[in-house]
Structure formats: C-alpha cells, structure tokens
Design a protein that fits this description.
Layout lengths: L6 H13 L5 H17 L8 E6 L3 H15 L3 E6 L8 H12 L3 E3 L3 H5 L5 E5 L11 H10 L6 E4 L16 E2 L5 E2 L7 E5 L11 H5 L1 E5 L13 E3 L23 E6 L6 H12 L4 E6 L14 E4 L9 E4 L7 H12 L4 E3 L2 H7 L2 H8 L6 E2 L3 H7 L4 H6 L1 H12 L2 E4 L5 E3 L5 E3 L12 H14 L4 H23 L7 H20 L1
C-alpha cells in the first residue's frame, strides 16, 4: 500500500506519536534518517567531503542540525547556514542546536560568498517543512535561488522548502523588484519525507522539485496511521485483473471497442485511440467517424472504419471524444453513446460538449454505471465552470469535486495525474514524464482504458491501470532514448502493449 496523508493528518499522527515517546526522540530519529540518506548520496566515504546544511528557524531546521552533527561525526566537513528563530525555540530544536554546536560542524550566517566557497558534495535542505504558509522572501529566498544553480545532489528534508505538501504548488506568489509576481522553491534531487508520504510531492510542481522521494517512518507505530483515502498508484492496485489468455477463446471473448470521433480534419485522433485499443487486447475495434469515414486504416487494417451515424452504441464499450468536434451532429452522437449505458469513457471534445449541455449532463447522471472522464486542466475547468488556475491550485480536491459532481470516475491529467472516484477515494499516478506533453497521447490513453473496459475490467481498475501503463511506457521510452524530447503518441502504442504483457507474465510466473 502507498498511502498519502495531508499536512493536517501528519500533524495529528506526529502529535500522537510524540505523546508516547520521550521528548525530542522524533527529531533525533529524523536527523539520523537524514544523515543515513545523506551518506548514501555521498562518495564511498564521507570523510573529507564538503556538505552544506541549511537549518531554518523551525523544527525542520532542527532535523537538519541533527543530521549535520551526525555527518560531522562521520568525518564530513559540514557547514551549517543557520537561521535562528525570531522567538523562542522548541526544546527539541534547542537540543539539536546544542548537539550541532558541540560537533565539528561550523554554524555560519548566510552569505553569497559562503555558498560559492566550496565545491559541495551535498546540500541538505532543512529550511522549512510542511508548516510553511508564506512565500520564501528575503535572505532565504536569495539562498534558495543560489542553491538551485548548484549541480550537486540536494536532499530536502520532509518537503522541499517553498513547496506546499498538500497541493504540490509553490507557495506564493510574491512580487519581485519590478512588481511582477514570482514564485520560488528549492529544487531537490532527493526528498526524504518523514512519517508518511505527502500528495504534494507527487503532483503539480512536486515531481519537478522533490526529485526522488523516500519515506522515513521514524519507527512510528503503524496503528497511529489512519485509513487513507488517497494513495500513490501502483500495479498492485489492479493486478487482480491481469490474467493470461485461455487457449480456448476467440475475438468475441475480449470485447468490442467503438471509438467515436473523427470530424472533418481530425481523423487521426480516433485512429490513435482505436489502434491503442486493439494493441491493448480488445477483440474488435471500430473507428467511428462523425465526418466522412476513412475507407480503412492503411497502418492498421484490422480496424473497422465506419460512419458513426449507422452504429449501434449498445454493442461495444465506447470511447467518445477524440476529434469529435463541437457540431450539433457531434452532440447528438454523444447523446446516443451516453444513453446506450455500456462502458463509457469521455475524452477531449466529448468533455467540452458535456460541459456546455445540461441535457447531456442529465443523461450521464441517469446511467446505471459510472463513466470515466479524462480531462486535462482546461477541460476540467470547463466541466467545473471554473478556471485552470483554480483547478491546478489543488488538483486532488478538483478531481474529487468533479467525480462527485458528475458521479463519474475522473482522471485529471497532468503532472501527477489524479484518478478520483465519486465516493472520495483518489489516487495520484507516479509514472510518466514530460515526453507525454505532445498531441495525441491523450487519445492513446483513452483507447487503452476503453480496451480494458471492453475486456471486462471494472471502471476503477481500468482507469488506474491505463494511467499507470501509459506513464510507464513513456518512462521506458525516455530511459531508452535518454531524453523526453520528440516522443510521438504512436510510439507509445507498442510500448504499452509490451508493458501490459510484462505485467501479465510477471503475475503468471
């Protein structure tokens, strides 16, 4: 299981754990865990290496002070940029400061010259943790901007300073000297987060600023962690649906997919979705065109290209929207697909039509089984009668609200895609990368999910699996090519098929 907890939940867990332990034990454990992680990131021996520790005025700074003392004891040359609290310090932070002061580490005020004075082997960020509620400013802001230019590993403790642990947004904005809004957070290569994982490390700006995330549970009794309704996606959540195919089967055993789209000038979108549906294992796939249908797909002649006007939508799982357009004809076709009450996924133009038509919304609400909606942030804003900035401000909350409003499973696409159910359960997907930021990848995702629906997967597991596989295929392709530039949507299709079959083979082994 990969539960994610909000800041409020973490605070409650921390208070309960601290009440059962001697004072300062949790901070000592955090410092020890941070030092151990730091040693993993340093060369074979820490002796003689130069480490810069940033200790802020709160308890996150105390964690950094504890870690600095341990690293100094291990032989590293540790310099601590220390920002003392404006008021009284907590007792445990004061103890950590005394321990660091008694070590070989040097406590120094921040200066630009200090940061430039060494070739640092590692920087430890203990400026601010999950309690930060204001933008970074003043000397801390200048320090973070300078640290972000360094090429060495940077280890953030609990959360990169300046990043909201709940939403993954940079805390801000503030205005620069020119009066323009600007935001800043420390960009870490690694984050060691304490007690439990946090959603903000995995969505919105989180993946870019948190780097590789590891959890240090600090030996807290698992009984203190409440049941979570937010998790990090993992193949174990849908593995029960994976199975090898029986020899005694036929194309009818694996369902029909109908991809509804393809208005004039947009025939490529449904072809991408249909090709993916076929390669993900559907028995028969129909590409249905709102405009003039293609006679056939030369690159995938197994697809059946038809006019959407003549198709019986009750005979297949339907993927509606890729290249569908915004015409009255498109709206009428979508209405037919919705009332067919077969497994249904709405993407792209289908979402825009839904957002602007109360009759379509009522028809969707009358369905016996939930549809899957796969909006990107702009489409989500239209569905919510909101703005992109409001959707992105708290992606988990936005996805949950849409799922409840439309009584559908919602996949809010983007950095750390959110999959949310009407009952409030939500999952953040950790796979995928910037290579997916190109035209057609959403069509591929829609076709993949529709194919799983046609093969009898429950909608929730189909959504989880499709998003995870889609991202994993992109991760594999980027690892093979060395960069995320120039991937095309069609390249994902065989890569996803390979990943799906690998999962099945692994389960069957």
């Amino acid at each position: 299981m990969n539960p994610l907890y909000s800041v409020a939940e973490i605070r409650s867990i921390e208070q309960a754990a601290a009440a059962a332990l001697p004072a300062g034990v949790l901070m000592q454990r955090a410092g020890q865990a941070a030092a151990k992680k730091a040693l993993d990131l340093l060369p074979a021996t820490a002796r003689g290496t130069h480490v810069l520790a940033l200790a802020g005025p709160g308890n996150n700074g105390g964690d950094a002070l504890e870690a600095a003392a341990h690293l100094a004891q291990a032989g590293a040359h540790v310099s601590i940029v220390h920002f003392p609290p404006a008021g009284a310090s907590s007792a445990e932070r004061q103890t950590a400061l005394q321990r660091a002061s008694a070590s070989a580490a040097q406590l120094l005020p921040y200066s630009e010259e200090l940061v430039n004075s060494q070739s640092w082997a590692l920087v430890i960020d203990g400026l601010f943790g999950i309690g930060l509620q204001r933008p970074l400013d003043g000397g801390v802001r200048q320090l973070v901007a300078q640290i972000n230019t360094l090429s060495c590993p940077i280890l953030a403790l609990d959360v990169p300073s300046g990043l909201d642990a709940d939403t993954g947004q940079i805390i801000g904005p503030i205005k620069d000297d020119a009066g323009d809004p600007t935001e800043i957070a420390l960009r870490a290569s690694h984050t060691l987060t304490f007690i439990a994982d946090k959603p903000g490390l995995h969505t919105a700006e989180g993946p870019d600023f948190a780097g590789l995330v590891q959890v240090a549970r600090l030996e807290i009794d698992g009984a203190l962690l409440p049941a979570a309704n937010l998790h990090l996606n993992d193949a174990s959540y849908f593995s029960r649906q994976l199975s090898s195919r029986r020899h005694n089967s036929h194309k009818g055993s694996y369902g029909n997919v109908a991809v509804l789209g393809g208005a004039s000038g947009m025939q490529g979108a449904p072809i991408l979705a249909a090709r993916m549906a076929l390669h993900a294992g559907a028995g028969r796939v129909y590409a249905l065109f709102a405009g003039l249908p293609l006679p056939y797909d030369a690159g995938q002649p197994e697809l059946m290209c038809r006019s959407a006007e003549d198709y019986d939508f009750s005979s297949a799982s339907v993927v509606a929207g890729p290249g569908l357009g915004a015409s009255a004809q498109a709206s009428a076709l979508l209405a037919r697909a919705i009332v067919a009450d077969t497994p249904l996924l709405l993407d792209a133009d289908a979402l825009n039509l839904l957002a602007s038509d109360s009759a379509l919304q009522q028809a969707l609400g009358a369905r016996r089984q939930p549809a899957i909606l796969t909006p990107h942030p702009l489409e989500a804003a239209r569905l919510a009668a909101s703005s992109v900035s409001e959707i992105q401000a708290d992606r988990v909350r936005s996805a949950r609200q849409l799922a409840e409003s439309y009584q559908a499973i919602v996949v809010l696409k983007g950095s750390g895609s959110i999959i949310a159910a009407p009952n409030g359960d939500a999952v953040i997907n950790p796979t995928g990368n910037a290579a997916l930021a190109t035209a057609g990848t959403g069509d591929v995702l829609a076709g993949l999910c529709g194919s799983l629906l046609a093969q009898g997967w429950p909608a929730w597991q189909a959504a989880l699996a499709a998003v995870w596989l889609h991202g994993m295929a992109a991760d594999v392709l980027v690892a093979e090519s060395g960069n995320a530039i120039g991937l095309t949507a069609s390249e994902l299709i065989p890569a996803i098929r390979t990943e799906l079959n690998r999962l099945v083979a692994r389960k069957s082994a």
